[in-house]
User: Which sequence fits this backbone?
């Protein structure tokens, strides 16, 4: 398996070769075609619920626009603390190859945030806000870095599942396909790097942690993964789409069996990685 240092050098070369300008990369249409999807119906959070069944075809298309705007908003908000954390990571290891790649990583994440904000503001009229309370806590040695890269992988791997599905779906608006394609091209490198660096960090520090640290980390990780999924079920989205009782719709979707199976399917590759590395000891309930 390629070590993070060697991998970082190779990924830096790829980032230079595949660099793009967010301000010239897209042909933004003046308006979207209301008869086309913005998110595949099977990826929409209410798919398989009574609220979905109650919508007519135009209503489902409207919902798909607000759903993709929420997805892009979640990704934008997830990348904001990621950028802040990467700044702290850049020179902490005195590893020139990893530091160089983190510079590329930062630049790419900044482009992504601009891209998602441009889409959301143009076509949904806003970026959906996200409210997460971050409580201060003490960490064992190396645990804070492990926690940071776990968060990185969760936002990037869940998002990439959607990016891949939407990037080549001809049912969707071309601009939606393009945004997802561009994001996936960069994220594929970020995920490979994040997986390897997290593997090495966990293998280095976890064996030295106090006895209660790993069980606590596993509880936090399961809770954080569920919390990340909960953000996909946004009552503000349902309200904007004209759904009569948005909070009841959210409650139904979180409890519905088809929605649970969807969360498990999208999370499977990520959960398998956490199990294989020993970061998780069992499959979390979603």
Assistant:
């Amino acid at each position: 398996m390629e070590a993070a240092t060697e991998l970082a050098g190779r990924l830096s070369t790829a980032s230079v070769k595949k660099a793009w300008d967010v301000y010239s990369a897209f042909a933004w249409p003046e308006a979207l075609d209301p008869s086309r999807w913005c998110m595949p119906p099977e990826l929409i959070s209410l798919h398989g619920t009574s609220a979905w069944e109650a919508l007519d075809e135009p209503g489902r298309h409207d919902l798909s626009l607000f759903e993709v705007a929420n997805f892009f908003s979640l990704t934008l908000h997830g990348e904001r603390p990621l950028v802040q954390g990467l700044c702290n990571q850049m020179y902490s290891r005195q590893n020139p190859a990893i530091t160089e790649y983190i510079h590329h990583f930062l630049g790419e994440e900044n482009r992504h945030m601009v891209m998602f904000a441009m889409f959301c503001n143009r076509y949904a009229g806003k970026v959906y806000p996200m409210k997460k309370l971050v409580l201060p806590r003490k960490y064992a040695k190396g645990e804070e870095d492990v926690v940071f890269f776990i968060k990185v992988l969760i936002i990037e791997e869940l998002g990439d599942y959607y990016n891949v599905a939407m990037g080549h779906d001809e049912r969707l608006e071309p601009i939606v396909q393009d945004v997802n394609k561009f994001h996936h091209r960069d994220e594929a490198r970020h995920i490979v790097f994040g997986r390897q660096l997290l593997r090495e960090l966990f293998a280095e520090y976890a064996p030295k942690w106090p006895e209660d640290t790993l069980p606590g980390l596993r509880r936090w990780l399961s809770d954080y993964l569920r919390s990340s999924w909960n953000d996909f079920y946004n009552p503000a989205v349902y309200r904007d789409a004209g759904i009569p009782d948005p909070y009841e719709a959210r409650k139904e979707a979180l409890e519905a069996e088809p929605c649970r199976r969807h969360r498990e399917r999208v999370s499977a590759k990520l959960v398998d990685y956490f199990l294989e590395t020993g970061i998780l000891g069992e499959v979390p309930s979603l």
About this structure: The mean pLDDT is 92.
